[in-house]
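REQUEST FORM: STRUCTURE PREDICTION
Request ID: SP-0412
Submitted by: Lab K.M.
Chain count: 1
Length (residues): 115
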Amino acid sequence: MLASASSLPRLALALVYVAFAWFSVAAIRAGRDTRCGCFGASGSVIGWRHVGTDLVLAAGLGAAAAGSGPSALHLVLVTPSLGAGAVAVALVSAVLAAAYLSGPIASARTERTDA
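STATUS: Completed
RESULT:
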């Protein structure tokens, strides 16, 4: 998605994240203990942090679609050091998001409700 120079894939993925957020809100309001499935069978029960994460990702992708910056692939090919830094930031962000949604950070919050 981010390797394409076109903004359409970014916009499409942003809409998918909005749909995920909508589904999550519907599941929360229905009172169902629906597992997110983000990371396979070990995913956590859908909560407000899923809604927030989905909306932040949708906003970021929407901003990327609206902007005219280079694609991630272009950044890596033209400026390898800057591209490597961007890839490293993306990987660390993905690991932190996984920990926040269903990993150690989520487990540490078991005594609190998913607010």
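NOTES: The longest strand covers residues 38-41.
Reviewed by: T.R.
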